[in-house]
Amino acid sequence: MHPAPSIIFFTAASGAGYGLLVFAALAGLIGLVPVGSASGFALLLPALLLVAAGLLSSAGHLGHPERAWRAFSQWRSSWLSREGVAAVVSFVPALGLAWAWALNGRLAPLLALATILMAALTVYCTAMIYASLKPIPRWHHRLVAPVYLGLGAASGSAVGIAAAAWTGASVLPLAPLVALALLVGWGLKWRYWQSVDTQPATATTADAVALGDRGTVRLVEPPHTERNYILDEMGFRIARKHGAKLRRHALIAGLALPLVALALALLLPQVPAALLLSIGAGLALVGVAIERWLFFAEAEHLVMLYYGRESV
Amino acid sequence: MTSLPANPSAKRLGLVIDLDTCVGCQACVVHCKEWNTSSGASALSDTDPYGEAPSGAWLNRVHGFELDDSASGGCGSTVHFPRSCLHCENAACVTVCPTGASYKRAEDGIVLVDESKCIGCGLCAWACPYGAREMDRVARVMKKCTLCVDRIYNENLPVEEREPACVRTCPARARHFGDLGDPESDVSLLVAERGGVALMPELDYRPTNRYLPPRRPVPAADRPAALEPAPGGFLGWLDRLLADQP
User: Fold this and answer.
1) Which CATH number goes with the domain that contains A63?
2) What is the mean pLDDT of residues A94-106?
C-alpha cells in the first residue's frame, strides 16, 4: 500500500497526542505530577496540538475536504466515521480536564477518566479503519489494534515525561510508567512482525480468477500499459532487505534510545535530564513514524493478484 | 446511508462473463468508457491523455492470463479476464464509506456512488479485493461500474439497448446481463449449465456477478485421429485415379 505522508503523520501524531492525554490523566490521578498551570500547559497543550494537527492532516489526502463534515454521519457501519465522531467527542472531556488543570489548578477525576476512555476509544477506531479491511491480510490482523494503542501510549508517554521534566516535576516516579509503555508497545509490534512474516498467503492469482482447480495462472497481458489509481495506491512494494533494516531503525529510535535517555535522565540534574528526555521523545516519535511507514509499505492488497503478483 | 439494505429485494442484477468465449478485444472496456464518460455526473476523466504518462479512470479492465493446466492433462490456454464491479451482496466498499456516498440499492442490488457526497478518501477502493473502484483524479471522487443503471431502465432507449454498454457491445457474446436472484432467469440457467463461479468466495463478499470457466479441453484419447494430408498436384490426380479403379 502506498505510504501517504499525510496518513502516516495523522496516525503517528494523533496516536502520540492521545497517548499523552492518557499519560497525563493517569499521572494526575495517581498523583505522580503536581496539578497546576505549569504541568497543565506543558502536558495537555502539546497533547491537544498533536491530536488537532493529526486530524487536520488526515483531511489532507481527501479529494473534497470541504465535504469532510459528512464523514460524521455513518458511524453505524464505518470505522472511519466512528473515528471522526470519537475524535470530536474526545475533545469535550480533554478540554474540560485541561481547563480545570491548567486554569483552576484542580484535577477533575471524572473528566480524567472520561479523557482516558475517549482517547483509547479514538485510537482503537483509527486502528480498526485498517484492521477491518479483509483485502489487506497484513492489516486484517488481531494485533493491529493493540499495536496502535500500545505505540500511542509509548510515544505519548515519552513526550509526557520530557514535558514533565521541563516543569521541574520529579522524573523518578514517572519513569517506570514510561518504560512499561515503551516495552509493551514495541513488544506487541515485535510479536506482530513475527506473526505476519509467517502468515500463509490468502490467495493466489489462480484463486483470484477462479481457476484454482485448473492449474497455475500467470499474467501475460496487463490491461493497461501505463499506471493507474489501483497501481499507484495498492501496487507499492518494498524490498524485503530494506524492510528488515527499517524495522531495526524503528526499534532503535522508538524503543532502545528512548529507554537509554530515560535511564540516564534519572542520574542527571533537571535541565540536562529534560533535554535528554526531549531528544528521547523526538526519537520515539521518529520510531513510530518509521513503523507506520512500514505498516503501509509492507502491506499488500489482494487486487495485485490481477496485476502480476503470484500470491498475497 | 452506507449500511447495507435491511430488506433487500430478491432481485439481484449482475453480469455473467464467459471466460471461454471472451477474446480479449477490449470492446467492452471502450464502450464502458464511452458511455460512462458522457452519462455520469462528471466525465470519466483522463489525465495527461496525449502526454508521456497517460492515466485515467476506467470501470472495466480486461487482463490476459496464461493458464498452465498441463498437470491435469490440458495443453495450456490463454484466458482473457474482464474485471469490473461484482455488485456484492456483502459489499464492504459500502459499509466502510464514512459519508453515505456509497450505497447499495435495495430494489436491485446495484452498488452506486453519489458523487455529490463523496469526499474522495479512497477507503472504499481499499476495501474492495477486486479492484473495482478507481479514483477520478479530475473530479476527485470515486468512480465505479453502475451496471449502466442509466441504460437498463431508460425508456428513451430502444428495448434492445436497455442492457449495460459492455454487454451490448461484446462481439463474442461473452457477457450476459440479468437477474441472478431469479433461479429461472436466462443468466441463472446459464450459470447452472456451465458451472459459473464467484470470485474469491472465501472472503465472504458474496459477489453477484458470475464467471463461466473455460471449457475443458477434450482428452487426447477422445480426439479424432489425425488424418494423413491428402496429396495434391500430379500425385493427387494419380491417387484419385487409382482410388476410382475397381
Assistant:
1) 1.20.1630
2) 96
